[in-house]
Every structure is written in C-alpha cells, then in structure tokens.
Design a protein that fits this description.
This is RAMA domain-containing protein. InterPro entries: RAMA. Pfam families: RAMA. By secondary structure, the chain is of the alpha+beta class. The protein has one domain. The protein contains 5 helices and 6 strands, in the order ααββββααββα. A 4-stranded antiparallel β-sheet has the order 1-2-3-4, with helices on one face. It has a two-stranded antiparallel ribbon with strand order 5-6. It is globular, with a radius of gyration of 14 Å. 26% of the residues are buried.
C-alpha cells in the first residue's frame, strides 16, 4: 500500500482530533507476547513508565524490552504505525494505526474533490 502525502502529514494528535482515535489503550503482539501502551490526548504514547513522541519509538521500546539491549539489538527499528493496534472510533473496529491513518487520509482526500 503506497503511503500518500496526506497520510505522511497526519500525526496521532490529528487522528485524535478527528475522532478516529481516542486516548486509551494501544496493543501489539511481539514474539508471541501481548503488549499494551497508553495513547495520550497529545498524541504521545506511554509504555513501561516512559513517554514516546512517536509510535515507532514506543514500538522499539517493546522490542528492546522483549529482546534486551545487547549490542546486536541496539539498532532495532520499527515502523510503529503498523506495529500498534487501536480502536477506530469511526469504523468501530480494531486495526493498526497505519490502517486508521490511511482511512482518515482517504476521507480527507475525498472531501477535497
């Protein structure tokens, strides 16, 4: 799925403002274990006692917690939009943040036509 310029410009705070996301739990599965983080009103994510300003930062924190931070693991990266799942409060389903962002971008693009 190609990411559009509209999608790239959207932030978690934008999705909260739109009503698609609400502050609350985010979930992820990694190495057969389930992790939960908290999406905050400002679009930041709280996980394991720390606050992250991006979905990717919080996803990397999960991976470091799961795998440890040995020298081989220090360079772990992740595309956090596809890692975390949340409730889409418009479509009423649980999907990745990437899917929620895509839906909102499509809605914005359609309203411009």
């Amino acid at each position: 799925m190609k990411i559009t310029d509209t999608e790239r410009s959207l932030t978690l705070a934008d999705l909260i403002s739109s009503g698609r996301l609400k502050p609350g739990p985010l979930t992820a599965s990694y190495l057969k274990k389930r992790y939960t983080a908290e999406l905050r009103q400002d679009g930041s994510i709280q996980f394991n006692g720390a606050t992250y300003t991006s979905a990717s930062g919080a996803a990397v924190a999960v991976k470091h917690l799961a795998r440890g931070t040995s020298p081989q693991q220090v360079k772990i990266t992740d595309r956090g939009w596809g890692f975390w799942h949340a409730r889409d409060h418009v479509d009423q389903d649980d999907v990745t943040l990437l899917k929620i962002r895509h839906r909102h971008a499509c809605q914005l693009d359609a309203s411009k036509k």
